[in-house]
Amino acid sequence: MSLLRVNQLSPTDDSVVIEVADLLDKSGLITNGDKLIGIKNNYAGAVSRTQESKNDESLSALDFGAKGDGSTDDTSALQAAITAAIAQGRSLYIPFGKYRTTSRLVVDGSCIIYGDGWQDVRDYTGATTRDWTKQFTRGTIIYQDYLASADAYGFYVTGNSVSISDLEIEHNQGNPGSGSWTPSVTPTAIYAYAQPYYEHGGQSVMVENVMLRNVYRGIYLINVARGVIDRIFGQVINTGISVDRSGDVVRISNIHLGWTFWSSASAVMNYQIANTTAIQLGRVDNPQLYNIFTFGIKVGIQCYTETTGHMTGGVSRLHGTNFGFDDCVYGLLLQDACEVSVSNLYAYCRANSGTNSVAVYSFNTLGSGYNTTLQLTNVDLMGCDANAIYLANGGTATLSNVRIRSWNSLNSGYAAIRTDSGHITINGLDTNNSSSNSADVFQTTSTGTISGQVNPSNDALFSLVTFYGTCDSSGSAVITHGISGAVTKGLMAQCFYRAATDGAMTPMTTQYVNGTQIAFSGGVANLAYRATFMYSPKILSW
């Protein structure tokens, strides 16, 4: 037996006899020395304990051999650390560094994984700088270095009560250079999945304070209830956040996507405006979205109806506040059965993007019974190629305190607000088309109707609503215009008809509007007509 003297281990006895073998592992190295080190917090009420007890509070990725040097394959080390954290019920800390992975990291149990935040950029003196050509030296970076064909996922989460926070995820996208560019890798950075019909696994997943830098797909939750996605920043290539088949509340907040966190190359930005969606929601109940901002992205928020799998349907009872979509093609893109209520919405559309930009676009592909119900309050829209708001083939919308500053930049006759077969109710609308293009404020076709109050920007004769149709066999047209209630003095309608199949439109008569129908005659049988409703007072109440 060997003797080892340890000073000040006890207030009454400054020595202890132990077996040295008790401190040795199989390789002959001393690994259990932390049992002999006593620690105590300096504040009142603190008690003494060993360093071993302190170490047991959480695990570090470095404990399992992870290097974080950007070149070593840390996949096995990180997976071992995650597995141990789940088994021991501890948190896993990933210190600052760049951890290269070459396949998925499976999180199949309850676990908290956290790092040191995003990377800082520092110059040779160690000071932070905005020069992105300098070396990244701070922050926890998970560098997912593989193709989707090798593994489609980065973090693969099937565990309950999982939290991933305070780190950054990068993909090995090719250098955009100065020419054309398409993404070279297509994995999903964080994929959380729960087995259908079960209340265990993949529930209550939280992703917080994560930077998604050049990732193809960011965060994808499927069958996950009670998800929380908060403080997500980044430049994504295809989709930032996607949620589908969630039967319980999902909270998405404080999102900033599309900015040039990775590259400002024109080829990358052009790809984003043509392909990227910031947030995509399928069959989701009660989603709550707050403080959402996107820049240079095709679609800000897309809602659609899921038609396959064990849970079908659209977005139900979405509540949103403070949405800003800057330089977009579509701010809100709503497909089929969606229930959406948003307050404080701003959208600035990109002109001439290759797709006619519409700030709020709702359409139906599934037929009767799959219409959108939309409520918008405190809205500011501008810069649209086509309509600012377009409610196509069904649905209802209530618009309150809406300002539309420019639309129809293509000068192709697009109205500010259009509905084909739905109904729009307006409670306060202020319009000002600052472009040189003249265009209607409203346009309805088929059975679409509009009612409410509008407040244009001047007192001049103003084109309000345009109806299109076909004259009957006698050359007449009876238009049910949907304008209801007391009609302010000055509302009039003028109808034009087409004298030949390819001929120009010829005016019929102009008459004041009374009631909810108006009749014109003098057209050509079975050829097209166009009826335009106009007014001169500044305020029109319907």
From TrEMBL:
<protein>
    <recommendedName>
        <fullName>Rhamnogalacturonase A/B/Epimerase-like pectate lyase domain-containing protein</fullName>
    </recommendedName>
</protein>
<dbReference type="InterPro" id="IPR024535">
    <property type="entry name" value="RHGA/B-epi-like_pectate_lyase"/>
</dbReference>
<dbReference type="InterPro" id="IPR012334">
    <property type="entry name" value="Pectin_lyas_fold"/>
</dbReference>
<dbReference type="InterPro" id="IPR011050">
    <property type="entry name" value="Pectin_lyase_fold/virulence"/>
</dbReference>
<dbReference type="Pfam" id="PF12708">
    <property type="entry name" value="Pect-lyase_RHGA_epim"/>
</dbReference>
<feature type="domain" description="Rhamnogalacturonase A/B/Epimerase-like pectate lyase">
    <location>
        <begin position="60"/>
        <end position="120"/>
    </location>
</feature>
